[in-house]
Each structure stands twice: as C-alpha cells, then as structure tokens.
C-alpha cells in the first residue's frame, strides 16, 4: 500500500471546527474567561427565518479527485428531492480489484457546519480509502438548523440503501456490499451510532448489504450533566448552541439522540449485540469530551456489545482528521478490529 500523504495546500484550510475546539480548550486555561458569542466564534450568521449563513471563506470546499494521487473520487446525487449527495473514493491499484469492503462515512461539524468536500476531510477520506483498501462513500447530509435531526440520520441511512441497490458503477463493479462498515467522526460518530440503531431493525430490507460494525471516532455525545470536564463555561455555550440548532424544536438536551444512555439505553443495542456487529471506539484523553466518551464506552461494555476501544494519551478533539500520524494509527486500529472483512 502506498504511503499516506496530506497535501500542503490542505494545511492552509485546517478544519475550522478543529481550530475552534482547540481554541476553546485554550480558553479553559484562562483565569478569567471572557464571555463568548458562539455565533461569532463558529463564524456563522443567524438569519431571521431561523437559517444560518456559512461564509465560504471560512468553509471552503474542493472538487473531487483533487486531494490525493492515491484514489479516484467523484460526487453522486443521493436524493435529488432532498439534495444530499455522496463523494465516493476508489483506491488506485495496478490491477483490477472487484471486491473492496465498503465504508460509509459521516463527517463532523456539530451537525451545523462542515462538508465532506472540505479540503482536510477530503484528504483524510482519500487516505482512508487507500489505507483501508476500501470503497469509501462519504455522505453530504443535510445540515441543521435548516434540517434538524433526524435529517442527518435519515440521509446516512438512505446512503446505506443507495449502496445496497448498487446503482452506481463503482459500487457494483468494485465493492462488496456484504462487507460494510459505518464510520463517523465527532458529530458523525453520533450519526453512525443512531443510524446503527435504526439499521439493526432493517437487516432484511438492507440485504444484500451486510453491516459488519460501527466506527465511532471521538463521538459527540452528551447527557444529563455537562459533556466536558475541567473546562470553562464558554465550551458549554458553544456546544449548547450546536445542539439547540440541531435538535427538534423544543427537545430537551437530555434525549436519545444526544445521550446513548438515556432511559437505560436503546433496546436496539441488544439487536446490535445479537447481530455480532463490532464497535470500534477511538479517542484521546486530551479531548475535552473524553469523560463522556469513556462513560459511553463502558456503558456499551455493560450492555455486552462487542466494543473495542483505543484511547491514546494527549492530543485534542479532531486529531484523527488533522494529524497524519494519528490518522495512520486509526487506520491500523480499524484494520485490526475488522481484520476478517478488510483483507488487503
């Protein structure tokens, strides 16, 4: 397999959300924390109709097939009526390969910002396809508040059916739909968890697609108490805004979308266990959400899921997208967890 490369030009557009989160961690160390306007800090502008404006200078995107020599990529409409689409990544090989495992991916951004076409994420996904020797289908799901949850969950679930139907030439010619893993980072990890719950009810309807497991990368979860430990209130202000923009109007912060442990957890966790899905859980203790992530990881263990954790020391939220060395460790972890299905 070719070595992983992150183009220099992508570093010029280091994901805004990662910069935001790192800055918030710096805020937490200040003796006197100034009051923060979360809209200004996120570089979004609220509009009178309840929508938001996302200035392009803060949220750049790139066309397909530009970030890496390691893969081909293309954009394909998922549902013209609702306007989500997918970016598909096909690793380059010297000889034809027709049975690649399929990774369906959900990006981060607090459900409110970011795109699968953002330069660093596009580069990360290109490397993901190359390093995992997989056909990657990354979903450009609808964003909140224009489309509140469960819209993002609906779109990623629809992407699973799109893969199942094999209408796209790359999926039908190069992919093996019987070896599908759903992967997501930050709020995308939350999406993967919630989509996994739904998909566990639809196993027969999804055939011949077979889900083999879930990959939760620093997932964005919450609960009854604040999601962070040892940090200043500005962090909670920003995350409260993201959730208030994302959740159905009037929904409390403590709810099943936000908190996997709500009400003792979903009854579908038992289905995930019985289906034999593996759950790979990646994080780091420098992430200010680590306590909640570890709590959820232990809860999954308690519910007897086949969950495997890899929690490294130090770093920050978003490190697996922003740091090539840690991304490589993530790929090694995922390959190990799903070694029966990722054979290359």
TrEMBL record:
Leader sequence residues: 1-22
The Alpha/beta hydrolase fold-3 domain, residue ranges: 103-320
SUPFAM superfamilies: alpha/beta-Hydrolases
Alphabetically ordered keywords of this record: Signal
Keyword Repeat: no
UniProt keyword annotation of S-adenosyl-L-methionine present: no
GO MF entries: hydrolase activity
Domain of life, per lineage: Eukaryota
Matches recorded under InterPro entries: AB_hydrolase_3 (IPR013094), AB_hydrolase_fold (IPR029058), Carboxylest/Gibb_receptor (IPR050466)
Similarity remark: Belongs to the 'GDXG' lipolytic enzyme family.
Protein name per UniProt: Alpha/beta hydrolase fold-3 domain-containing protein
Organism (species): Beta vulgaris subsp. vulgaris
């Amino acid at each position: 397999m070719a070595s992983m490369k992150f183009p220099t030009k992508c570093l010029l557009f280091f994901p805004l959300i990662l910069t935001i989160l790192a800055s918030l961690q710096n805020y937490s160390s200040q003796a006197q924390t100034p009051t923060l306007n979360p809209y200004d800090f996120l570089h979004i502008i609220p509009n009178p109709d309840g929508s938001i404006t996302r200035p392009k200078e803060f949220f750049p995107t790139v066309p397909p097939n530009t970030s890496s020599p390691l893969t081909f990529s293309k954009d394909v409409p998922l549902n013209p009526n609702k306007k989500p689409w997918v970016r598909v990544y096909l690793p380059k090989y010297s000889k034809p390969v027709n049975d690649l495992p399929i990774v369906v991916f959900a990006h981060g951004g607090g459900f409110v910002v970011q795109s699968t076409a953002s330069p660093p994420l596009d580069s990360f996904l290109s490397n993901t396809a190359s390093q995992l020797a997989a056909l990657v289908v990354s979903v450009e799901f609808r964003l909140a508040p224009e489309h509140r949850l469960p819209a993002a969950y609906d779109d990623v679930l629809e992407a699973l059916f799109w893969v199942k139907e094999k209408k796209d030439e790359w999926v039908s010619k190069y992919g093996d739909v019987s070896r599908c893993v759903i992967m997501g980072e930050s709020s995308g990890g939350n999406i993967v968890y919630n989509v996994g719950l739904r998909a566990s009810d639809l196993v027969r309807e999804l055939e011949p697609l077979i889900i083999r497991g879930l990959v939760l990368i620093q997932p964005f979860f919450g609960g009854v108490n604040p999601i962070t430990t040892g940090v200043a209130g500005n962090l909670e202000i920003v995350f409260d805004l993201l959730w208030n923009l994302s959740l159905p109007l009037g929904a409390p912060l403590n709810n099943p979308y936000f908190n996997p442990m709500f009400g003792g957890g979903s009854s579908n966790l038992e289905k995930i266990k019985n289906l034999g899905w593996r759950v790979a859980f990646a994080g780091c203790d420098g992430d200010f959400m680590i306590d909640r992530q570890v709590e959820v990881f232990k809860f999954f263990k308690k519910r007897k899921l086949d969950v495997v954790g890899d929690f490294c020391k130090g770093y920050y939220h978003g490190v697996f997208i922003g740091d090539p060395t840690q991304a490589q460790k993530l790929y090694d972890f995922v390959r190990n967890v799903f070694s029966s299905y990722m054979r290359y």
